[in-house]
Protein 1
Amino acid sequence: MRSGVVAQKLGMTRVFTEAGEHVPVTVLRLAQCQVVAHRTKDKNGYVALQLGSGSRRANNMSKADRGYFAKANIEPKRKMAEFRVSEDALIPVGAEITADHFIAGQFVDVCGISIGKGFAGGMKRWNFRGLRATHGVSVSHRSIGGTGGRQDPGKTFKNKKMPGHLGVDRVTTLNLKVVQTDVERGLILVEGAVPGSKSGWVTVRDAVKKALPKEAPKPGKFRVAEEAKAETKSETKSEVKPAEAKKEEAKPSAEAAPQAEQAAAAAQQAAQAAEQAAKAADQAAKAANKAADKAAAAKEKKPAAPKKKEGE
């Protein structure tokens, strides 16, 4: 017995066959449906897989729930469900089930929560016939009529079909045919209607009342987390290589940058020292010029020596 999947209902559309006939289908999306945990016979008394689908913000969860997903090394999931499986159909924890888990042409059972319709009368809720349109019936054409007997039993039995809340029930639709699958986008196209509203969560499993085709993969079609990581790495390697080459080219320039900075600093210091020396030389030259000017001025101020008379 294989595992099912947790999917999200996107809506309905139609698919044309080769003969030109259109088939109404419901589109179901696998939002990273992963195996979260195992239920074993020794620990839990039964064998099952716990699956999770959809993403959820970690800050909106309790600490216990965050720890539960962290233990499995899986991102928090929006919707959880368990599927009973045989012991030989266990899938490793962390594996992501892909859309080709189901093959075109096989039958599946889809279970979901029906759309709520509020408070409904007996004719809509239980398909009652109602009362006559004429001949003595006034203002109670859609009533359900009597609900109990006479003095015996003297009461209305429990679970009597009466007006009440309609919808929001767990409904399973059996024997829906898989028209086609899209692995890249994670879509499963199922013929016919599926219970629930758009963007609602449903569970899809192999049909109970139909034989499983021999071509169906066992224990299932899935992608292990390590393989997915390897694929993403191989895809990103081609993008990273040019950047790595640029980095390697930039390494020598990055290593030479400190040396160039040191040389520039030394040249700047030498230029400053030369400027200081030039300033000192200018000052010394100015001082020498001043001294020469003073000496010349002093010579001019001295009185001329008196001439000696003849005969003295």
Note: The mean pLDDT is 86.
Protein 2
Amino acid sequence: MGYPAFVGMPLFSRRDSKAVQLAFWIGQLNAIAGSEIPKIRHGSILGEFDGESTGIFRQVSDEKKLRLSPSAVNEYENCPQLYKYRKIEKLPEPPSLDAERGTLVHTILQDLFEFPSAERVPQTAFDLLPSRWSAQLEGKPELKDMVTNEKEWLDRATSLLTTYFALENPTTFEATHREMHLENDFETDVYLHGYVDRLDIAPTGEVRIVDYKTGKSPKPGWEEKALFQLRVYALLYWKSTGVLPRLLQLIYLGDGRVVKSNPSMKDIESAEKVLHHVAKDIFISIEKDYWPPKPSRLCDWCFFKSICPAHNN
């Protein structure tokens, strides 16, 4: 099936010191978990008792709205207890190397479109690596101790960028928007938002939403769950402009696969229903202080496993 509106645009269009660092984060986490921080009434999370709220309990904006995003929805559905740790209590976590590598590659793919089209070639992206990595280290100095082999780290980033150029040819199109922030007053007390890696508008006005993933693509049958994020972006864009995006595209640099979808109104209405349902459940969890953990194989990668009630009777 072709996409005539995007003619000329590709369809596949972002050892000791380490121990000390880990000990620091575990110590900080245990200190918070064992501290005598006064219980904050749930109303303060919704901005109703500003005088009693503390910084780590800032889940909702000053406008008393629950801040909802695709990642927050995914977090709550995967494990309400993890959502509480991250979004309600805002417990500290060490940086994730996978996430930081993703940030590095996303930054380069974003900056690549600052160059004239003829210069958007692999070598330009590779040349950006040292300076963008230095800037990232400056912002998070702890990464220097966590990345024990810098050459291997940069080689992996280079490999991901190489895969990108095998899937897209950025010399043939212009990225209309990069890191585009979409937002909407979704409900009276819910603020919905998200950041789009790239949004392309064809000469005919048709819209393509693109998201870069530095991991591997989902197994067959799991694509729908992965596409939820982009359907939320499509919903936000439609609410803002009245235009339904023509194409949603997930570019997986980890295995060179692209997942595409032509969203229908039924798709984004379905996503909207999920958002309403999850928002309602979060408010119930806040009101009842009920955050049931959902043990799964993902627990082995969770930093909070040591204090999670599912693993500590």
Note: The first helix runs from residue 17 to 33.
Protein 3
Amino acid sequence: MVHKASGGISRREFFKSGVATGAGIATAGAIPSARETEQSPSNEPRGLKVLIISDMEGVDGIFNWTDQCNPLKSPRWAESQKLLTGEVNAAVEGLTAGGATEVVVWDGHDGGEALSASDIHPKARLLIGSPIPPIREFDSTFSAIVFVGQHAMAGAKNAVLPHSFFFNIQNLWVNGRLAGEIGIRVMVAGEMGVPAIMLAGDTAACSEIRELVPQVECAEVKSSVSSTAGYTLPHPVACDLIRAKAERAVTRLHEFKPYRIEGPVEVKVEFTTSAAPGPRIGRASERLDERTLIYRGKNIIDAWFKFGRL
């Protein structure tokens, strides 16, 4: 995922201005955790509701961000959309075959411009566009989350297009543990009481999620020989694999538990040299050095949403 900066400014200007450390990304002052929502039980029957978080850099056949992943500007953008849509629709088919009663697909790539209502699976609800308030992305009403097109974290070895939300974030730590998009989302979902059950992406992304959820179902659709080259499954084969893994993940749902970390939580964000934040630290708790800000909170939701979004 490479989020766009708001207001049409460049990514560098976005961080220099301090927007990334304030409420410009997320206003999440009162996002309930699972512990809070459990105190208000509903009498309505709960179906099996699954959230698919989609991205593009982990999709089969995609190895070059400039040529393939930049919305409406990449020369191969239309092809990339078709590949992503195929993978997402395969996951929807697998999840529903496995027993999911509702599937929400969140287009998580670069401002939510990669998927279209014209060709998304008819059994899915599509969440697109930007910005999206954090509480609308998912909550404790979901039974599970699934990743499609997911890449590994910034600095990951043997990974295709690795990064953590932005290419100008060098490292993220949660309570001293390195994390990327996978880790943050697994942790936030866990705080909501929602387990991560399946991922489709490259070999490095699969290894990354297995560090947190060893029993997770993984569809490894490609592997790297460098960060911008590697081996890929043919698209139909990748979709068949994703469909099978998604179905199996839902049938195994009872085996999964939410990934929880005990609070308080400290999120440390280290930017690249060119993206060092400006003098304002916004909602950060502390500036560790010129390139590193620290965000603290009572739990991962409280700490993370002071800085970023999902």
Note: The radius of gyration is 18 Å.
